[in-house]
């Protein structure tokens, strides 16, 4: 049974009081027209000490920060803001989910990443964060990541509307709380493949978007088969919800995978202008395989990213989701090469 939800998570940056970083909306304001700027702001905040940042927000006032957040923060500390890279290069736990979570975190850090995404691990549940995951387990996940110098950049969550919308709302709100516990601004959802549940699934998301926004959390779906397998299908879902803090977490490997290799993500990327807030870095090989080392498959990552940039995705998370299976040493080596591939792709260090 899930434990009682705490009033706060014991860290100033995750508190949800009126003066917290999350409550100001700075971490994720989700104005799609300037989504790259918001990502830069989110990570610029990491460069400031928590005390000086909170002092700055108090002096400037929440209203002025929300009206022009980047300009206000640059005025407070322009040197720190300019040092922050545009892209956050990370690695999901799925890459190492045949190993224990602690071993996966060690390998991700040793591969040179500073950001981690919580997705799957080698447990019976597989998906790490579900609506019923005890709070203490989520806190432990976050603590172990931070002990290795890793910042949680994305949480993948799983909730159900099989029973009712109300039950779905309770579950999704718990996932949002878990994302806050992890000091993370991104909760990625998988969508639903059940046409009968489609309306209730996205109604649940719409009902929870304001709750998430108040806590500084952005929600997103990814191309994941079923009713959200392509860019146009994902656009339909995002527009159905109609909330500024609900967008698309792009996945070029899945575009190939769920179309049996027929739909090239370079072409599909042209259908998602203005929606993309992050990307799962995943390759693909026919006939139907995504456990592929980055750069060795069919995905043309330079062309995909160039097209996404043209559509407004100019800053944000790029997180490796899948690599080929193998012994720990070989997967870690592949993860290192994936980091180097992304560094070359973006022209910046991880």
Explain what the structure shows:
The chain is of the alpha/beta class and about 350 residues long. It has two domains: about 15-85, no CATH class; about 85-345, TIM Barrel, CATH 3.20.20. It contains 14 helices and nine strands. The protein has helices at about 35-45, 50-60, 60-65, 70-75, 80-85, 100-110, 135-145, 165-180, 200-215, 230-240, 250-260, 265-270, 300-310, 330-345; strands spanning about 85-90, 115-120, 130, 150-160, 185-190, 220, 245-250, 275-280, 315-320. An eight-stranded parallel barrel has the order 1-2-4-5-6-7-8-9, surrounded by seven helices. α9 (about 200-215) links the parallel β5 and β6 (about 220). α8 runs parallel beside α9 (about 200-215). The model is unreliable at about 1-80 (pLDDT under 50).
Shape descriptor reads globular
How much is the radius of gyration in Å? Answer: 19 Å
Low-confidence spans: pLDDT under 50, at least 5 residues?
Answer: 1-81
Q: How many runs of DSSP E, i.e. beta strands?
A: 9
End-to-end distance: 39 Å
Provide the residue-averaged pLDDT: 83
Trace the largest sheet across and list its strands.
Answer: 1-2-4-5-6-7-8-9
Please outline the major beta sheet: 8 strands, parallel, barrel
| CATH homologous superfamily assignment of the largest domain | Divalent-metal-dependent TIM barrel enzymes
Level-1 CATH class name of the largest domain: Alpha Beta
Helix content: 40-55%
CATH architecture of the largest domain: Alpha-Beta Barrel
Structural class: alpha/beta
The tally of structural domains comes to 2
User: Into which percentage range does the β-strand content fall?
Assistant: 5-15%
Helix/strand order: HHHHHEHEEHEHEHEHEHHEHEH
């Amino acid at each position: 049974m899930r434990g009682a939800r705490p009033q706060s998570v014991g860290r100033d940056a995750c508190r949800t009081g009126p003066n917290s970083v999350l409550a100001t909306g700075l971490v994720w304001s989700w104005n799609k027209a300037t989504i790259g700027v918001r990502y830069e702001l989110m990570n610029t905040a990491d460069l400031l000490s928590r005390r000086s940042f909170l002092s700055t927000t108090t002096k400037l006032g929440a209203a002025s920060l929300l009206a022009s957040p980047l300009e206000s923060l640059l005025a407070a500390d322009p040197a720190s803001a300019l040092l922050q890279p545009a892209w956050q290069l990370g690695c999901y736990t799925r890459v190492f989910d045949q190993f224990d979570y602690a071993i996966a975190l060690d390998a991700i850090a040793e591969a040179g990443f500073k950001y981690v995404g919580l997705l799957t691990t080698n447990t019976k549940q597989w998906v790490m964060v579900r609506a019923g995951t005890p709070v203490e387990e989520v806190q432990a996940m976050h603590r172990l990541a931070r002990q290795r110098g890793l910042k949680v950049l994305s949480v993948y969550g799983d909730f159900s509307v099989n029973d009712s919308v109300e039950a779905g709302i309770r579950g999704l709100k718990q996932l949002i709380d878990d994302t806050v516990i992890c000091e993370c601004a991104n909760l990625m959802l998988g969508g639903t493949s059940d046409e009968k549940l489609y309306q209730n699934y996205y109604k649940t998301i719409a009902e929870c978007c304001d709750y998430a926004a108040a806590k500084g959390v952005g929600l997103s779906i990814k191309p994941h088969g079923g009713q959200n397998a392509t860019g146009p299908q994902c656009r339909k879902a995002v527009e159905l919800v109609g909330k500024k803090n609900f967008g698309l977490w792009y996945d070029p490997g899945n575009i190939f995978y769920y179309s049996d290799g027929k739909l090239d993500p370079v072409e599909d990327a042209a259908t998602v202008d203005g929606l993309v807030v992050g990307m799962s870095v995943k390759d693909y090989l026919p006939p139907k395989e995504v456990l592929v080392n980055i750069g060795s498959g069919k995905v043309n990552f330079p062309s995909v990213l160039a097209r996404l940039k043209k559509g407004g995705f100019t800053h944000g998370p790029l997180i490796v989701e899948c690599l080929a299976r193998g012994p720990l040493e070989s997967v870690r080596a592949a993860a290192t090469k994936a980091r180097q591939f992304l560094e070359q792709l973006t022209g910046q260090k991880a």
